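**User:** I keep going back and forth on a fold encoding question. It is easy to fool oneself when nobody else works the same problem. Could you pick a protein and write out its sequence and tokenised fold? Could you put it straight underneath, so I can go through it closely?

**Assistant:**
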Amino acid sequence: MSNAQHTPVVPLEAGAGPENPPCPACGEPLFGWLSERPGLRGPVSRCESCGLGVVGAPGDPEEALRELGQDGLRVANRAGFAASLGSAGWAGLEPGSRYLFTVESVRRLVARRDQVVKSCRWAPAASLAATWQTLLNSVTFGHNVALAALGRGEAARAKHRWQRRIDALASVVLAIPALLIAIPIELAGGLSRRGAVISLKFELL
């Protein structure tokens, strides 16, 4: 007979409190993920249950639903390989970001207004660009510099001019190597339903 002691399983609800407010999507506690970054409205928290990320104050379901819209949208997937790989360098952390959605968090939110997710499709080109930028963010002072230069988003630029010059040079020199790495990562993400960008459509029950 084994004398080994089993570690008790602690439910997520046990972490609820003033420092861990409820997730707008599922009500489970939000836990700290990233400290405040330039261009973001505050630190980033995340839900361990549905995966929703929240930038700044915890917010509420109504606000999150307004951001989702009524019929569907395209979102950077916080459950994607790019988000897991990039962490603070993830391209989905754009300036002004508020809610960082996953498919599961969207399902739970739209259920509040008697909707379901009708379709969830990987967006290959946008996903590849996001993963490529996530890799470049790991070597630049600023954030999303390359995509902004291509007119595909807004950058959080580095504070000093010399840093911005290095970022521009790094983005050019490393563009092809980063792309060659991004392609297999994003193919794996798309095939495993963890693509960097997904298109969602909703319908009423």
About this structure: Residues 25 and 108 are 6 Å apart (CA to CA). Residues 15-204 form one domain. The beta strands are 30-34, 44-47, 53-55, 72-76, 99-100, 115-122, 197-204.
